[in-house]
Amino acid sequence: MYVRGTVAGAVETKSVNGSELAEVPVRLDRERDDADDGPATDDSLAGDGGTAESESAVDDGETTVAEHETTTLTLWGKWTESADLLEPGMELLVTNAAEKTFRGEDRYATTGDSYVVVEPSFLVNVTAIRNWVECPRLYYLNKLSGVPLNYPVVKGTLVHEVFGDLLRGRDLEESIDARVEERGLELGLLGESPESVAEDVRENAGAIEGWLEQGRLTEEDSWRSEQLLISETFGIRGRADAIRRGAPVELKTGKNLKKEPRFKDKVQAACYALMLEEHGGDVDLGTLLYTKNSALDRNEETGDLTPAKEFTMGDGLLKFVVRLRNELAAMEIKGDVPTGYEGSAKCEYCFEQDTCMVVSGRLDQESKAGQIGQALPDEELEYFERFYRAIEEERREVHREYAKLWKQDAAERADDDRALIDLEFVEKRPLDEGRWELHARRTSGATSKIREGDFVLASDGHPVRGNAEHARIERLDEDQVVLTADEPVEVTRLDVYPSELTTDRLLAALHDALLKGDERRKDVLFGRTDPEFEPVEEPFIDNNAAQNEAVTKAVGARDCALIHGPPGTGKTYTIARAIRAMVERGERVLLSAFTNRAVDNALEAVLEQLEERGEIDADRVVRVGSESGVRDDMEPYRLERAGDPEDRLAELQNAQVVAATTATCGSRVMKEQAFDVALVDEAAQLTEPGTHAAINLADRFVLVGDHEQLPPVVRAENDLTESLFERLIELHPDAGVMLDRQYRMNQRIQAFASREFYDGALRPAEPEVAARTLDDLEGVTRDALPAALRDPVAFVDVEGDGGQYTDSEEAAEIADLIETYEAAGLERSEIGIIAPFRAQVSEISTHVPDDVAVDTVDRFQGSSQELIVVSFTATGTLEGPIFEDYRRINVALTRPKRALVLVGDASALGSDPVYGRMLEWAQA
Ligand SMILES: Nc1ncnc2c1ncn2[C@@H]1O[C@H](COP(=O)(O)OP(=O)(O)OP(=O)(O)O)[C@@H](O)[C@H]1O
To answer: Which residue intervals define the domain DNA replication factor Dna2 N-terminal in the entry (predicted)?
Structure first.
């Protein structure tokens, strides 16, 4: 029996007849019988025969479902260690529990076959457990600073890749050459030659190849390389290097001449064993491959002939691993920081002792290694703690996304835009390198977030319980999908795979900003000093005073400059002009933004500026990003990672302008780069640590954005929702310039946004802009429109159908409007429709022609259209969230150039002051 619940009170630990036990009051979520539809865990982990306790259990197979009932759960023996971690409110799961009736109350207890899992929905990475067993403080330090670029790490990755290739039947030499070539850029940064690296990898992979060959000759082996495993029961996830005959095989670069595998390596293999058993396997063996062990190392003690060391996967080890994981999960849930005293590792043997002492000293944290250095000032410590917590909350949200992989059924995932379901598997085609191309047919035209170039979970039905594999989407058409993957999954479903990478990088950026950051930079960030500017006399832009001032500030800033650019005010143009001026001064510039789209957009403008002047050859401009992220026309500038290390390095090092998203700025490669200045576009959409990721790399920085438009996109509601841009504009108003002339909207369209969001300061840049109407477009006459639509701003009152997230009446009205505008000569490509909810976007899409763009505000930010139609989807009262944040309405209303039509229920909208003023303006 599988018992799951929430701790409802204080835990009592006792000793009965020499046995330790802990009584935990729990409120049951629900209870399930073995025969229930739960995961395979119970069956597969049941082992052979229960203990005395489980035999005495009352288990007649007719377990009732008890919602929110409070009862007592007794944890026996070593599980009392996990009980010590519990606090009221924590989640608890017990497998193979026994039920007993005690004084008329149903109680539960662990049996000899039970596992106790604390906070099962907190998904711990296998590598984290491995670090934790070495030293909990080491786990924390790794989490804070990320893994830097260094040769042992890159070599380790290469050896793993070659191992995977060997398992898939690729030739050793061919694999080594290809894999070393792929890492050209990293090797260049590390100053390594391809020949010596290949030799090194050969030394490590050669022995494995020999061992594999031997295995193939003597036994029937079934291998699978790199398996992604997620456990909904144990709250663990990870990627096993390989599975042989259903048991985990872990590869370790290096030597181990002891008879036994290293303990932390066993722990890692045991994590995979747990997950394999959950998926129905029966694992009694683990294998560690130490790549540098060879026949030559044979000695008296080990008699070792091969790199492989096998060990028995005992019950005790598996349970120990679950308890370790419980310690880690409980600490994270409580928000505690490990000191190192939790474990028994000796600091004097630790390579990280110095780092540990410095971090402990600067952050004023208790640590077993001790502290050195002076603690950060209080406000910096407070900032670190506040953002650390906020980032961890964000991580918790990512975990909730993972949990949806099993908590939601296929249809719910599809409705949530997170899965493509009901695919029909067509075929698998082997590719040269032992990988596979998978083809499936789409049976429904459903939309989803999944796009070409994305990495997804491809499964044969269930992303966690079925056979699932990481796959890349090569093509995604209306009726088919083509994927590439390491293993030939008979794919029928694709799921968005949540990633903690962003969260990890935010944490590292926070760490670097505070612990490695320049003191003067921090004085400015914390308001201890004002930003300074050097005088710059040169004029840059002669027809727009605010833009000229912005470039002057950006160029002259010793610390930072802030450019506030409302819609259509020439942010991109100003950025490009500023970068040209910096390049002319011989500076090295980082150009960054939150999205790839914004980076490419700005880069295009920079290239125009530079090429026009012929000042630098475009060879010195580099775009860092993945092939799928970078726009096709920017591909020629994209930095190729594969190739000769020296060439790749030179390409990056010589680049005077490097453009990359802020997420990429946190990558190992980019973290090795240094710039004179970082220019960050869309800065109001970035969290503070997200901004640090880019500006940490430069001596000074320029942030460009508009805090009256969309805020940072985050899952959790906390300090991450305010951007550094917004905070600094308030803290250092003198470092800012607002661009106040817009080049987009007709005068009448901009009036409301200007008044409501920019204190009336926004103006059309030129008379031509102020006076633009649909009449200017070829073949369009406003006279063909009904009188009510001839004004550049119109309101169409629709009472609506009362739905919360959709409104079919508004959708039908919008379809009529589109026909009307088409009849007046407007092209479909000149029209955009904005709705507050995805559900309404879908609803409208079914009413209007396919080639009219319909989307949410978030997708429209940064773009514009001749005509914009906004569907408010609000009827009756305004209780629903509609455009939940007024900044969204600002974005929606400032997308059109020549015409704007608002569609909604006037009486509902009139009940809110801002929407009320909007109505007055639209109906004027
Ligand atoms: N000083 C200027 N002189 C002439 N045209 C300009 C000037 N500044 C901007 N423009 C033009 O105005 C238009 C909008 O500029 P740009 O794309 O730079 O605006 P933006 O603020 O980045 O827009 P968005 O709000 O969409 O991000 C472009 O066509 C650009 O060429």
So the answer is: 67-220
